[in-house]
Amino acid sequence: MKVAFYSVKEYDRELFGEYSAEYEFLFLKNHLRQETAGLAEGYDAVCVFVNDELTRPVLEQLSECGVKLVALRCAGFNNVDIVAAKELGIAVTRVPAYSPNAVAEHAVAMLLTLNRKTHRAYNRVREGNFELNGLLGFDLVGKTVGVYGTGKIGLLFAKIMKGFGCEVIVYDPFPSDEAKQYRLVDQESLFSESDIVSLHCPLMKETYHLYDEETFAKSKKGFTLINTGRGGLVDARAAIEALKSGQLGYLAMDVYEEEKDYFFDDQSSGIIQDDVLMRLMTFHNVLITGHQGFFTREALGGIVETTVENLRAFEAGKELVNAVLPVDV
Ligand code: NAI
Question: Which UniProt keywords apply (predicted)?
């Protein structure tokens, strides 16, 4: 089977390359867009990542190229028009879980950085400045932590925060039995009662700009928001206003709505044109990482393993246990 990989980094090439005896791989650095879809001509499958764009026109082009499978090497699938793929007879698979611990732990790392200001202390101490002014933090014990979405990652995050002695409250429209060990609340209560909110739901119509001007206004004054879910969950312009007024005390973002133009690439020699992103970077109480929540050795190993299993199942005509169907959208 011939598989064209888009948005390839060195680590993808190295890890997937171990299976090159089994498959004919084409490793492309390009992101998948209308302009680059033609590179998959003659390939049976494309293997793509979070910022590749699988819109209807791109999928139509891929179909004309002979592509029958889109193998996502990530969990989220908001970048794929699943209905169009189904209509074109293109199967879509994903990696539903690959060390959810990696993302949950990253969310905690971001929280601990912001609340104890270690990002500022690191720079300050290296300059020989041991002054403590401006580094005053807050204890996590006793704080109310709202977990929005209690799937694999949300539940792990909740467990860690419980270990810190926080009061964990959760919201999920389809709570599992495991989620029910925490206090289940409605959305409004989660917004208004939480000192810290962490987002772990998928990006969908219902969750697009979940945090907008209105939600910020009904949140606790000075609360902390952590987003390791998807950028579109937070209206970044509204976040800037909330930061300026002090309504939002701290913001951690591993994801950003317009990240596809910047994240995963070295932009240090160019001029970043996104004024919203640049404004966010000016706040000392905002921490941005470039979608690295998943980036641990363990998680990468899991991604490769499941993606290869998905390719094998497709090739053998077996049931695709990790298929994404229109009903999931
Ligand atoms: P999951 O599928 O196990 O859990 C998602 C949970 O969200 C489910 O419990 C579901 O019932 C709930 N949910 C569905 N609709 C909702 C709504 N309208 N409001 C609130 N909750 C809702 O997914 P998992 O593995 O826990 O991942 C969560 C999200 O994390 C993914 O959708 C993805 O966007 C993001 N992610 C980020 C990564 C990163 O590197 N930063 C890596 C992997 C995932």
Answer: NAD, Oxidoreductase
Percent helix, strand and coil across the chain, each to the nearest 5: 40, 15, 45
92's enclosing H/E stretch is: strand 91-93
- The pLDDT score that the predictor gives to residue 97 is 85
For residue 50, the CA-to-ligand 1 centroid distance in Å is: 14
> Which CA distances in Å does 230 have to 39, 50, 64, 113, 293?
28, 10, 31, 20, 11
Rounded Cα–Cα distance for residues 124 and 121 (Å)? 5
Cβ neighbour number for residue 268 with a 10 Å cutoff: 6
Ligand 1 pocket, Cβ-based, cut-off 6 angstroms: 75-76, 97, 100, 103, 148-154, 172-174, 200-203, 206-207, 228-230, 254-255, 291, 293-294
Burial (CB count <10 Å: 0-12, 13-18, 19+), residue 287: buried
| Cβ contact 166:114 at 8 Å | no
Distance 112 CA to ligand 1 centre (A): 22
The pLDDT, as a whole number, for residue 329 is 64
pLDDT at 22: 93
Q: What homologous superfamily does CATH list for 2-98+297-328?
A: NAD(P)-binding Rossmann-like Domain (3.40.50.720)
Sign of CA dihedral 279, 282, 287, 291: positive
Q: Where are the domains of the chain?
A: 2-98+297-328, 100-288
The CATH number for 100-288, chosen from 3.40.50.12580, 3.40.50.150, 3.40.50.720, 3.30.70.2190, is 3.40.50.720
| 2-98+297-328 against 100-288: fold identical | yes
Distance CA 40, CA 61 (A): 9
How many CB atoms lie under 10 A from the CB of residue 273?
10
Kindly give the parts of the chain with pLDDT less than 70: 328-329
